[in-house]
Design brief:
The protein is of the alpha+beta class. It is built from four helices and 14 strands. A six-stranded antiparallel beta barrel has the order 1-10-13-12-11-14. The chain has a four-stranded antiparallel sheet with strand order 2-9-7-4, with no helix packed on it. Strands 6-5-3-8 form a four-stranded antiparallel sheet. Helix 2 packs antiparallel against helix 3. The chain is elongated, with a radius of gyration of 33 Å. It starts with a helix and ends with a strand.
């Protein structure tokens, strides 16, 4: 009887350990790493490539100058726009003084209605001229800025498609010059059954292991449609940061679900 009781207890313990092992295994889901952001960048203006400061595989900080077109034409346009604005500002100030003088003379009844209206018209024209000069200056500043590509976020250069001396015609067709991917965050994508998926919520903390390291993350997206119809699996995406570690898209990862 004692032997039977011991065997029964051992069986219960073994079954319990097996269930716990299966639970632990079920909580570790295979996943693949994706870029959190991937963009193809080009200049918004046409010109000749003057410098390319990066190569494929290079990591860059946000705001770094990656590429620039020959700035001669854009710098000249900006200089001209600044001169035109200064002239417009002078003409506006002069027209304002003449208008004030005309109003004063009109109130003293020594200026006709026609002359007062002339002064008003010149003032309005000077205002319009000033507005146009300001707009032209803004456009010239934007053209110069658009002739350069700066990193919109901390990135790794996936590929470069242009070389120094190459002419680009952005007005005809936008041609990607550089392809970048964000390095400040990544996404690990795995597949879950609907019951496991329903146990999660957006923003929930989930660790991600990849490249031999474990990183804290959080659920960013829960799938609403079947990805694998045969196995009835839905996608879950977990966003995580990896610091300075080198992470590549397609790299294997494990999601440690709670």
């Amino acid at each position: 009887m004692m032997c039977l009781r011991n065997n029964l207890l051992q069986g219960i313990v073994a079954a319990s350990l097996l269930l716990n092992l299966n639970a632990v295994q079920a909580a570790n889901i295979d996943a693949d790493v994706k870029w959190s952001q991937r963009v193809e960048m080009s200049t918004a203006v046409s010109g000749t490539v003057a410098k390319v400061n990066v190569k494929a595989g290079q990591r860059v900080e946000k705001g770094s100058l990656l590429l620039a077109l020959d700035a001669t034409r854009f710098a000249a346009g900006l200089k001209q726009a600044k001169a035109a604005q200064r002239n417009a500002s002078f003409l506006l100030a002069e027209a304002k003084r003449e208008r004030e003088r005309a109003i004063e003379l009109y109130e003293r009844t020594v200026l006709s209605d026609h002359d007062l209206q002339q002064a008003e018209n010149l003032y309005v024209s000077a205002q319009a001229h000033m507005a146009k000069a300001n707009a032209d200056l803004a456009n010239a500043e934007k053209d110069l800025a658009d002739s350069m590509i700066r990193a919109p976020f901390a990135s790794v250069i996936i590929s470069r498609h242009v070389e120094v001396g190459q002419t680009v015609a952005s007005q005809l067709q936008t041609v990607p010059m550089l392809t970048l991917a964000a390095t400040d965050a990544y996404v690990a994508r795995g597949l879950l059954t609907i019951s496991d998926l329903n146990a999660l919520r957006a923003g929930q903390k989930v660790d991600v292991s990849t490249g031999g390291q474990r990183y804290p993350g959080e659920v960013e997206q829960l799938g609403m449609e079947l990805v694998d119809a045969e196995k009835k699996l839905y996608a879950v995406e977990v966003r995580f940061s990896a610091g300075d570690a080198v992470i590549r898209a397609g790299q294997h990862a494990i999601l440690h679900l709670p």
